[in-house]
Specification:
heterodimer, A: Aldehyde Oxidoreductase, domain 4, five-stranded mixed sheet, 26% strand, B: alpha+beta, Uridine Diphospho-n-acetylenolpyruvylglucosamine Reductase, domain 2, Enolase-like, domain 1, five-stranded antiparallel sheet, three-stranded parallel sheet, iron ion binding (chain A), AldOxase/xan_DH_Mopterin-bd_sf (chain A), Ald_Oxase/Xan_DH_a/b_sf (chain A), AldOxase/xan_DH_MoCoBD2 (chain A)
Chain lengths: 733, 317
């Protein structure tokens, strides 16, 4: 189905099932521990052996020799495969570092061998006996020393945008603001590490794995193993968190396949948590300079956002300036991304790549500029709202209610109780502050396919390679099919994550919900017509409701259409150029109240509110879960999350979940989410957009602004840990 | 994890004897620290002696009005004990500030004293670490040192002791009781139990290889307002940046021990005489010999401010 005109009225608009707060249809499996996650799929193939991955002990160098004799002789060992046994594996287009790269070491804990044994313990014990001779090389590990010489980045997103004449507009602006912010390297730190079971049958391999993008995984496995894609099956029905860390193929999958080939039996591999930090990918650190020029009454006339990040050769920049191209008005604009070479592990996508880190800086800058102007930060943002793409003013936003998000949020949160003078509110030992930030994240549209089966008794089965990374995909897909075919939710079965199913949008970039359900919508439209014709009804007139189909006074049970057998329809949603004609984005107002201990500087978030403008909300219950999870991640980014770089040893030191702290329950207080009641017919037939990343973008800055409001100390380097402001807190001694 | 052998013993004396028989053997009780370290091959004992059924799981009154805490009393049970909560509040508060509910259910009193540092370089066997592998060097010095020690450290090691419980034990003047393979018992004041690293950071306590902790004795209660204030980067389930255990009397005198800054609970009795003068005076004396690393000088300010918070609370109490 081609989607190239704004959606008109369609069966989804009935909102009989879609739009209702709905429990996850797979929830029982998850809460009873029976949802099959990759490493626990003991039943899919017999005789599974265990693989343990060996990582490089140095960040950069050349492997001279790998001595596997000790490991080979260790009890229970079946096979040992090293990266010197074969030419380096070719990599997919989205990977920078090689997953099994031959003699050249590109980063710490890059995989150099896999040991396969009868038990996990045997494999791990044997792995420790592998001896590696490496000629180490010096590398660059410190972004701050590379900033001055970093060249403009290359890649899909233009590294440099100029509109008007920023320099002269800034130079002549009555009020100017110029500050630099830093964000650290961050880890996805999801609960389920990367894990795969691989089994060969002749030249064909099946991977039971944990991956967000099934078609990409299949393609990249085929590339790495030099086999045709049709000889690869990838199955990933349940995923214990991804956050972008499982968008692209990782070492667990290729090494399980290589290990299984060498062992002659199925092999399962899970990466350990230290490998999550240094073997896989992370969100790269940034150094961001923001300049704002404004009139005395607060109109932005010039805005510049320049960001520098680092990566390995072939890797891209952290696109931290993306939102600044779109979020606020202003005639003169400059945005740029520079990319330094670093020999740290690969920087890549993590939840809201670009905007998450960019909003951390931009939305502190807006707070600071508002204060400099003597304006309320909510009003300053409202004053500089734009309904058109500020770089291309003939391009409108499809739907943009940022102002309403901010206004409604301010009312709901009690923003008028905020004292604009910092460090002015105290309750006992606590300094109290409120902060606000805008939320912004683009809505991305991409082709997505699905197959729908109508079987015995009117049972509907949806098959798509779409994934559910904890987001609620199963449920919104079932809701979509139930709405389209006029059946109850319980009549719909959903099969996800299998590469034998039609290729979907997959999960990433908050594009999954809207695109995958639109693909299911397309397949259901086809099935509705097939059913109507089968029953001799006019396909254009047929009404599907209550398990029945009717048209022209004739009335059938839906199951009647299957009397000659199952009906199967497959289609995909394919987009025209509506996303070129219109800018499609999602918006939020984030409000946070914090308390800061006047003695110790400990920060406790007290209240949080997100008001979201994100098109139709398909399932308010799971969407809320997405947003509060994202808000939690925003608190982590604001207050604690940082991969600590050892700048001489060249790796992330705090490489486990004890060292890399993410919020615990005690850190997360009352969270409120309000979804504006809206639809976006430009986006898709579902009229929905994404929320999973919107919920993160801006939260950290709202926390930072609240901390400033509480303490009067402005911290421009995340995370905002007490060591950065303790000396500047009010004297209490 | 390297393969190891295992035996279970019935009495403390048998345990000590069993460890003496096998060089490198270790006692295991709750295993909340040792098993993790074995999985990472930071600890590679060839033999484990399980002391979990030696009956050392009681809290009994002592003739001088104190309590003897069996080595195997779990952190959960100890924190919840009515006598501990009434007379040794600082200990109960320190315990619940540590780890998680699940860990406290398994972790024992003796094991808590013996837990090893959380220095990230100690935990990565690719990196040099004098504590893990004597003579290889210290990556923490000049490395990522935000969590590491500021006092009592040495050129060989700047790791801290991670226990909360031990800080409270130190402020309570607890005494560690042991038995060895010959059946000899010892009473080691907590102040002498943990050693400073000097050139031998791998030797962390004054225990001999075959010496088993049988219990910890608390002297008779001394009253006062008893507090444990732990400051960390998140609200729960994290090791201290700084913690302060304090017992403040009505007249403003008292005792102070500090965690998170040194290879052992840090207490200097002479510094406590400054308490009536305020937190700064105490801190200046307590940390007069501090040598912060590149990332952790803030801990000195934090000790002072945390102690100020504690003193202020005590006054209000």
């Amino acid at each position: 189905m081609k989607f190239d005109r704004p959606a008109g009225h369609n069966p989804i608009d009935q909102l009989r099932v879609v739009g209702k707060p709905t429990d996850r249809i797979e929830g029982r499996l998850k809460t009873t521990g029976t949802a099959p996650y990759a490493y626990e799929r003991h039943d899919v193939v017999p005789d599974q052996a265990y693989g343990f991955v060996v990582g490089s002990p140095v960040p950069k160098g050349h492997i001279e020799r790998i001595d596997i004799r000790g490991a080979k002789a260790s009890p229970g060992v079946i096979a040992v495969v090293t990266t010197l046994d074969m030419p380096r594996l070719e990599k997919g287009p989205m990977n920078a570092a090689y997953l099994f790269g031959g003699a050249e070491i590109q980063h710490y804990h890059q995989a150099i061998a896999i040991v396969v044994a009868n038990s996990f313990e045997q494999a791990r014990a044997a792995a420790s006996l592998i001896r590696v001779n490496i000629t180490g090389q010096s590398g660059q590990f410190d972004l701050s020393t590379q900033v001055a010489d970093a060249p403009l980045a290359h890649g899909k997103i233009p590294p440099l945008d100029r509109v008007g004449d920023f320099d002269s507009a800034f130079a002549t602006a009555p009020v100017t603001f110029d500050q630099t912010y830093t964000t650290p390297d961050q880890s996805h730190a999801m609960m389920e590490p990367h894990a795969t079971i691989a089994a060969w049958e002749g030249g064909k391999v099946t991977l039971w794995t944990s991956n967000q993008m099934i078609a990409w995984a299949r393609r990249d496995v085929a590339t790495a193993l030099k086999i045709p894609p049709e000889n690869v099956r990838v199955d990933s029905p349940y995923i214990g968190g991804g956050f972008g860390g499982k968008l692209f193929l990782r070492a667990d999958a290729v090494l399980a396949a290589l290990g299984a080939r060498a062992a002659g039996r199925p092999v399962k591999v899970a990466l350990t948590h230290p490998f999550l930090m240094n073997n896989t990918t992370h969100r790269a650190a940034t150094i961001q300079r923001i300049r704002i020029g404004a009139t005395r009454d607060g109109k932005i006339t010039a805005i510049a956002h320049e960001s520098t990040s680092g990566n390995l050769a072939g890797g891209g920049p952290e696109a931290a300036v993306s939102q600044t191209r779109l979020l606020y008005a202003g005639a003169n604009r400059l945005t740029s991304m520079r990319l330094a070479h670093l020999d740290l592990p690969e920087g890549s996508s993590m939840r809201a790549p670009g905007e998450a880190a960019g909003m951390m800086a931009l939305e502190i800058a807006m707070d600071e500029a508002a204060e400099q102007l003597g304006m309320d930060p909510v009003q300053f943002r409202i004053l500089n709202d734009t309904q058109v793409d500020p770089e291309k003013p003939d391009r409108q936003f499809s739907r943009r209610q940022l102002v309403k998000c901010l206004q409604l949020g301010a009312t709901h949160f009690g923003w008028n109780r905020r004292n604009s003078r910092p460090a002015a509110v105290r309750e006992g030992d606590w300094l109290i502050g409120m902060g606000v930030a805008a939320g912004f994240r683009n809505n991305l549209v991409t082709k997505s396919g699905a197959r729908v089966r109508l079987g015995d008794g009117g049972l509907v089965t949806v098959e798509t390679d779409m994934t559910d990374i904890g987001t609620g995909s199963y449920t919104i897909i079932a809701q979509t099919a139930a709405e389209m075919l006029g059946v109850e939710l319980g009549q719909v079965k959903v099969s996800l994550g299998d590469s034998d199913s039609p290729v979907s949008a997959g999960s990433g970039g908050q594009w999954g919900a809207n695109n995958a359900t639109a693909g299911v919508y397309a397949a259901c439209v086809k099935l509705r017509r097939t059913v109507a014709r089968k029953l001799g009804l006019d396909p254009d007139m047929a009404i599907f409701a209550g398990g029945h189909v009717q048209a022209g006074g004739r009335h059938f049970g839906l199951a009647d259409a299957t009397r000659d057998g199952e009906l199967v329809c497959e289609d995909a949603i394919e987009y025209g150029d509506l996303d070129k004609k219109y800018q499609q984005s999602t918006f939020a107002g984030h409000f946070v109240e914090v308390a800061v201990d006047a003695f110790t500087g400990e920060i406790r978030v007290r209240r949080m509110l997100a008001v979201c403008s994100a098109g139709r909300i398909l399932n308010p219950k799971s969407a809320r879960s997405q947003v509060i999870g994202a808000m939690t991640m925003g608190v982590g980014a604001a207050l604690m999350e940082e991969l600590a770089v050892d700048r001489s040893r060249g790796y992330f030191v705090n490489h486990d979940l004890a060292g890399y702290e993410v919020p615990v329950h005690a850190d997360i207080p009352h969270q409120d989410v309000i979804f504006l009641d809206e639809v976006d017919p430009i986006s898709s037939p579902m009229k929905a957009k994404g929320v999973g990343e919107l919920g993160l973008c801006g939260v950290s800055a709202a926390v930072a602004n609240a901390v400033y409001n509480a303490t009067g100390v402005r911290v421009r380097s995340y995370p905002i840990t007490l060591d950065k402001y303790l000396d500047h807190l009010p004297q209490v001694l | 994890m390297k393969p190891f052998t295992y035996e279970r013993v019935a009495t403390p004396a048998q345990a000590a004897a069993a460890v003496l028989r096998r060089p490198g053997a270790k006692f295991i009780a709750g295993g909340t620290n040792l098993l993790d370290l074995m999985k990472l091959q930071i600890e590679v004992p060839p033999h484990l002696v399980d002391v979990g059924r030696t009956g050392l799981d009681k809290i009994d009154p002592t003739p001088d009005g104190g309590l003897r805490i069996g080595a195997l009393v779990t952190n959960t049970d100890l924190a919840a004990d009515r006598r501990i909560r009434r007379d040794y509040g600082v200990l109960s508060r320190a315990l619940v500030a540590g780890a998680s509910g699940q860990l406290r259910n398994k972790a024992t009193t003796a094991g808590n004293l013996l837990q090893r540092t959380r220095c990230p370089y100690f935990y990565d066997t690719n990196q040099p670490c004098n504590k893990r592998q004597p003579g290889t060097g210290c990556a923490g010095i000049g490395g990522v040192s935000r969590q590491l020690g500021v006092i009592g450290t040495s050129d060989a090691c700047i790791a801290t002791h991670p226990s909360d419980m031990a800080v409270a034990m130190r402020v309570l003047d607890a005494v560690v009781e042991t038995i060895d393979a010959q059946g000899r018992t010892r009473a080691i004041p907590i102040a002498e139990f943990h050693r400073l690293p000097d050139n031998t950071p791998h030797i962390e306590t004054s225990l001999t290889a075959d010496e088993l902790i049988t219990g910890v004795k608390l002297p008779a209660p001394i009253g006062g307002t008893q507090m444990y204030r732990k400051v960390r980067d998140r609200a729960s389930y994290a090791f201290a940046l700084v913690s302060v255990a304090a017992i403040i009397q009505k007249d403003g005198t008292g005792r102070v021990a500090v965690g998170g800054i040194a290879p052992r609970p840090w207490r200097i009795e002479a510094a406590e005489t400054e308490l009536p003068l305020g937190a700064k005076a105490v801190t200046d004396r307590l940390l007069a010999d501090a040598h912060p690393a590149s990332d952790n000088a803030f801990k000195i300010t934090l000790v002072e401010r945390t102690l100020a918070a504690v003193v202020s609370k005590a006054k209000a109490a």
